[in-house]
Every structure is written in structure tokens, then in C-alpha cells.
Design brief:
Shape: elongated
């Protein structure tokens, strides 16, 4: 295979790898969003019930116009209207997934604690790292020291890598919320029928996979910066 063909394959494969997980996840969630009269409660009702049942004190269940998530700083399970107000497999599974994060927080699940701490600095670190990466050669020229340039570039790469670390830590957090917490709860509590468990498992996998594409994208972005660094 020629170098040109390798480039063509990469151009095709990289977007596919980045986009495919999120496309599949959205399709799975949308397919199971239909209202089901046989489901006894809405996603919001299930989340409140689980908070009470597992005695996770201090956790609120709130509606949000944004996406479903758990806010560890406010100790709040925030659900979109489609999940908060509807009786569907997607609503029930998504609510259970976000409650899984609340349960992680209550039990002191370390990856969640690490992610919460890292998120505070990652966005700022990425911005400052990008700025430092661009300005490092100028500062090096002003000081007439290649060592200064190299040191500043290394610091910039470390700062920009914080976002990658956040995403990598997020993956086990999300899969544990889905399959270490939500799935056993839904199955053991008979919150969904046995014939729906396979589809619920797909929904929970979709909830976790929404972060896979972001992780891959951040790795690719860091890889591009590393390429520039090596060339310098």
C-alpha cells in the first residue's frame, strides 16, 4: 500500500472512529424514546425513588434544558424534559445511569472524585497550554535559549494533556455508572420487564459511549500537537 493510500485510509477511518460511537448512541436512545404505558413511572420519578430507596441523602433531582448529567458539586441529578417527564426505556435507563453517578459519589468512588477534581483545571489548562505552545518559540528567541523554548513546550504539552486525562478517567466512571450500578439496580428491582433488559443494556451502553468519541477526539488533538512538537 502506497503512502497516498495510507493517507486516504486514515482520512476515512479517523472520522468514522470518532463519529460512529456517538451516532450509534443517539440512534439507540432515539429508538427507545417512545412512550410506554407499561412502564410504571417517568425517569424523574424513578430517580427520586432510587434516591429515597438507597438513602442517598442530600441529592436533588432537577430538570434541565441541557443534557442529562450528575453534578457532584451541587449534588444534583439533572434530567432533560424527555427523561424527566416521560415513561420510556430511554428515560428509565438514563435516569438510572445518572443515579449511578450519585451512588458513586456517595460511596466515594475514586475515579469520579479524580474526574471532578481534574475538570476544574482541564479547560483552563488546555487554553493556557495552547497559548504557551504558540508563544514558546517567541519567548525562546527573546531569551536566546533553546532550552527555554523546549521547557516551555513541554509545560504546554503537559497542560494540554489534562483534557485527555479527564476523558480517560471519565470512561470507567461512565461504564461503572451503567453496568456497575444502573443495570444491576434495574434488573434486581424489576423496574423493567425481562424482555426489555437486552434493550436497556444497549441504552446504558449508549449512555457510556457518548464519552468515547470525546476521548478519541482529545487524543487525536494531543497527537497533532505532539507531531508539531517533534518537528520543532
Amino acid at each position: 500500500m502506497t503512502a497516498a493510500m495510507h493517507i486516504v485510509v486514515l482520512v476515512i477511518l479517523i472520522p468514522l472512529v470518532l463519529i460512529a460511537p456517538s451516532v450509534w448512541a443517539r440512534a439507540t436512545l432515539r429508538r427507545n424514546a417512545m412512550i410506554r404505558k407499561d412502564i410504571p413511572g417517568t425517569g424523574g420519578e424513578l430517580a427520586r425513588h432510587l434516591v429515597k430507596r438507597f438513602e442517598v441523602s442530600g441529592v436533588a433531582v432537577e430538570a434541565t434544558p441541557g443534557g442529562d448529567h450528575y453534578d457532584p458539586l451541587a449534588r444534583a441529578i439533572r434530567l432533560s424534559p424527555a427523561v424527566m417527564e416521560n415513561r420510556s426505556l430511554t428515560a428509565v435507563a438514563s435516569a438510572a445511569h445518572e443515579f449511578g453517578h450519585a451512588l458513586q459519589h456517595a460511596s466515594g468512588y475514586r475515579p469520579l472524585i479524580w474526574r471532578t477534581a481534574l475538570v476544574r483545571f482541564a479547560a483552563t489548562g488546555e487554553r493556557l497550554g495552547s497559548l504557551l505552545f504558540v508563544t514558546a518559540p517567541v519567548l525562546g528567541a527573546l531569551t536566546r535559549s533553546p532550552q527555554v523554548t523546549l521547557a516551555l513546550l513541554l509545560v504546554a504539552l503537559v497542560m494540554m494533556s489534562m483534557t485527555v486525562v479527564v476523558h480517560l478517567v471519565t470512561l470507567p466512571v461512565e461504564f461503572d455508572a451503567s453496568f456497575g450500578k444502573a443495570m444491576p439496580i434495574l434488573e434486581a428491582g424489576n423496574y423493567v420487564s425481562g424482555e426489555d433488559l437486552a434493550e436497556v443494556r444497549r441504552i446504558l451502553r449508549a449512555c457510556a459511549l457518548t464519552y468515547v468519541a470525546a476521548s478519541l477526539a482529545s487524543l487525536l488533538s494531543l497527537g497533532r500537537w505532539l507531531t508539531v512538537f517533534i518537528r520543532r
